[in-house]
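Troubleshooting entry. The earlier prediction with 2-oxoglutaric acid gave an output that would not parse, so I re-checked the input for stray whitespace and re-submitted. Clean input:
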Amino acid sequence: MPETVSRAKDLESIARSGGTLRRISARIPTYLKDVCENPAWLLMFVLARILPFRRAHWLTAKAAPKLSSAESMFGNVDARKAAEDLRRGGIFTGLDLPSEICMAISDFGWKTPCFGNFDRRIEFLPGDHGMAEMQFGRSILSGHHFERVLKCEAALAVQQDPILLAIAQNYLGGEARVITTRTWWSFPTRSATEAELSRASFKFHFDLDDWRMLKFFFYLTDVDVDAGPHVYVRGSHRRRRLKHQFTLVVGHPADEVLSFYGEKEAMTLTGPAGTGFVEDPFGFHMGTLARSTPRLMMEVGFGVSKPSQRRYHGEPVIR
Ligand SMILES: O=C(O)CCC(=O)C(=O)O
């Protein structure tokens, strides 16, 4: 195993493994960078997990501008209806990519080297995943393209599609803007031991990157239950037990989450390549472990505050 890589903090495994203090301390450099870049971030980070403060912030939302008449690649999606569904359940489905756009982003995903486990020292083509695990001597669960996605015209066309902005403005308010864009692979990993796999049990969590946020997700490969489908807990964006508001961590065990909202509210999103949906990521959600098939996914995130450079690349800061 190359020495640099063996010494590298494996943020993926830290984030997914137990140990609250260990998880928090691994993220301190990232938090410090966020505060230095934008001191108002600290206020958001402390208060936005508590419902009364969130509700107060929603009251400051500006009215959405009139719907634009610009043509969308998604056809006739009704932005107001999507925003209503989002307010009710936290999720809206039915934003499927045209096949040529899906194929172009998927082609980019296969041909562009990605970075394993958020680590820029682990660079490989997705087709060489097995070899990369041998070369770097570790399980590689994810592969991000970071800023390379900006070279993919089809991905930019999705990011700039008027319906995404219209839905975001109708839900978040007129100040909504793009704050993240990323594509990444989730890999099944044969080299992981049972212990690593059980540590990698992916947790329900909520996102705290902004006061009000939306994430559009698009599958670029077929996703069945063995390809790491995304799971969203309906209604969890507006109702929260106190324990999950006054909490230091954003990830919580499935039994605690599901006993409160009910198992039937957990929506497992499977579908063919091109399937797209949008959710309020303050609601509990998670990516599950890809068991047999790799999953390529694109995310376009909208928020209401100044986007940070790090979030734009989806990259944590490594100590
Ligand atoms: O990989 C997934 O399906 C989930 C991604 C996620 O949890 C997030 O973007 O916050």
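This one parsed fine. Residues 207, 215, 230, 281, 285-287, 299 surround 2-oxoglutaric acid (CB under 6 Å).
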